[in-house]
Design brief:
Elements lengths: L15 E5 L6 E6 L13 E6 L9 E3 L8 E7 L2 E6 L29 E4 L2 E4 L13 E4 L4 E4 L11 E4 L2 E4 L11 E3 L2 E3 L19
Antiparallel strand pairs: 1-2, 2-3, 4-5, 5-6, 7-8, 9-10, 11-12, 13-14
Length: 209
C-alpha cells in the first residue's frame, strides 16, 4: 500500500524519502510512509536499500542545449557518467505551438486542413478565403498570411521575438499571465496539450508526452 494513491489520499504529502548511506559508498536507502490506517511519518513502514550504484542522479530534468522541443532532456547514466539526453527527437512540425522539428521556428510550415492556416498553435480559418470567418472589430485580414491583424499594425514589421500591439512593437507575451497548464505563444494563452493523446503511463506536459 505504500505509495498507492487509493491508500494514501492525503494530497501532495511525500511518502518516500531517499537517503545516502553514511557508512557505505554508493549505497542508498529508500524509506516509505504508509497512511493506510494511520500515519506517524516516521518513514519506517518499509525500508529497503541498493548498493553499488555507479552513477547517481539519473532521471532528473536537464537542458540539452538543443532548440525547441529538443531542448528538454533527462539525465541518464552512460559509462558510469551522467549525460543529458533529449526527451524527444526532432520530428515533423505540427500546429501546436511547439517547435517539433527543432529548427528554431515554432509551427513553421505546419500543415492544416484546406482553407485553414496555423496561427497561435492551432489551425484557424484563413480569413482571406473563408466565406464565414470575419475578423473582430479593430482587426482586418492580412491576405499575405490569412491572419487577422490589428488595423493599427498594418504595414508594421517587428523584429524577431516581438509582436505588434496597438501599433507598437513589444516583446511577445510581455505582461501576459496565463492560467495553470497554459503557456503564452505570440501574445496569447494556449493549451499546448489540447488534442495531444499520450500512450498508457504517459501524460502530456508542455505539449509533449
Amino acid at each position: 500500500y505504500f505509495s498507492e494513491a487509493g491508500f494514501s489520499d492525503d494530497g501532495s504529502v511525500s511518502h518516500l524519502n531517499v537517503y545516502d548511506s553514511r557508512l557505505t559508498d554508493r549505497k542508498f536507502y529508500f524509506a516509505w510512509e504508509d497512511t493506510y490506517g494511520r500515519s506517524n511519518f516516521d518513514f519506517t513502514d518499509l525500508v529497503t536499500s541498493v548498493e553499488g550504484v555507479e552513477c547517481a542522479g539519473a532521471g532528473a530534468a536537464c537542458d540539452t542545449g538543443g532548440i525547441g522541443a529538443c531542448r528538454a532532456g533527462v539525465t541518464r547514466c552512460s559509462g558510469g557518467e551522467l549525460e543529458c539526453t533529449p526527451i524527444v527527437e526532432a520530428e515533423a512540425e505540427v500546429c501546436n505551438g511547439v517547435d517539433d522539428d527543432c529548427d528554431g521556428t515554432v509551427d513553421d510550415d505546419a500543415p492544416c486542413p484546406d482553407r485553414e492556416v496555423c496561427h497561435d498553435g492551432r489551425c484557424v480559418p484563413n480569413c482571406d478565403v473563408s466565406d464565414e470567418f470575419v475578423c473582430d472589430v479593430g482587426f482586418e485580414c492580412d491576405p499575405a498570411t490569412g491572419f487577422c491583424i490589428e488595423v493599427a499594425c498594418r504595414g508594421i514589421s517587428c523584429d524577431a521575438g516581438q509582436i505588434c500591439r496597438d501599433g507598437v512593437c513589444a516583446g511577445e507575451c510581455e505582461g501576459v499571465v496565463c492560467p495553470h497548464g497554459q503557456q503564452c505563444f505570440r501574445d496569447r494563452c494556449i493549451d499546448p496539450c489540447a488534442g495531444v493523446s499520450c500512450g498508457a503511463g504517459s501524460i502530456c506536459r508542455g505539449g509533449l508526452c
